[in-house]
Design goal:
Strand content of chain B: over 45%
Strand content of chain A: over 45%
Oligomer: heterodimer
Structural class of chain A: mainly beta
Largest sheet of chain B: 7 strands, mixed
Helix content of chain A: under 10%
Structural class of chain B: mainly beta
Radius of gyration of chain B: 13 Å
Order of helices and strands of chain A: EEEEEEEEEEE
Number of strands of chain A: 11
Number of helices of chain B: 0
Chain lengths: 111, 113
């Protein structure tokens, strides 16, 4: 069964605006990861946040994790057309690296 | 240098055929995975190998058989292909299973006709 649920399913914004997407999950986790997938391409890792962390930054990306609510958010600040992609959250709940992915948020950034 | 590479990138084949997808990683990782992405972009793990040993085997038809000749390679063989096998298959690797991020290949788009 699907572990993560992303919200919204789709997001359309203009360059320079911020994009926020949320991920909820069902079971306790070791870590939560965010990935980006450009159309027709593989997944690219963005950020990994461990269960004992609450916030992490990487460039224009900010990820938060609330384990009490079993939810995470990804914020992309000052978006660019190149940020157009699908964004997936994935939870890692065991010791074997088995990632369980959500359905993804499709982000379109228009110039 | 490509970190995780899979071949072929596209595969079109008829029902009933047997096909293989190859994957190689040059990152020195111990753990490799196969994921399947369906037409709705939903990704699901199929198999995982740690240092050539199978550690995850999800509910996958036994027509799918992974093979890891060494820790840098994880191939996927599919027998008696069915229409429902059409999907994008991704190979991935990670340095420490359950602790570090995964690196994905570019995917193999399999179309069964």
């Amino acid at each position: 069964s699907q572990q993560g649920e992303e919200d919204p399913q789709a997001l359309s914004i203009q360059e320079g605006e911020n994009a926020t997407m949320n991920c909820s999950y069902k079971t306790s986790i070791n870590n939560l990861q965010w990935y980006r997938q450009n159309s027709g391409r593989g997944l690219v890792h963005l950020i990994l946040i461990r269960s004992n962390e609450r916030e992490k930054h990487s460039g224009r990306l900010r990820v938060t994790l609330d384990t009490s609510k079993k939810s995470s958010s990804l914020l992309i600040t000052a978006s660019r057309a190149a940020d157009t992609a699908s964004y997936f959250c994935a939870t890692d709940a065991d010791s074997w690296g088995k990632l369980q992915f959500g359905a993804g948020t499709q982000v379109v950034v228009t110039p | 240098d490509t970190a995780v590479s899979q071949t072929p990138k596209y595969l079109v084949t008829q029902m009933g055929n047997d096909k293989s997808i190859k994957c190689e990683q040059n990152l020195g990782h111990d753990t490799m995975y196969w994921y399947k992405q369906d037409s709705k972009k939903f990704l699901k793990i199929m198999f995982s190998y740690n240092n050539k040993e199978l550690i995850i085997n999800e509910t996958v038809p036994n027509r799918f058989s992974p093979k890891s000749p060494d820790k840098a390679h994880l191939n996927l063989h599919i027998n008696s292909l069915e229409l429902g096998d059409s999907a994008v298959y991704f190979c991935a690797s990670s340095q420490v299973a359950g602790y570090t991020e995964a690196f994905f290949g570019q995917g193999t788009r399999l179309t069964v006709v």
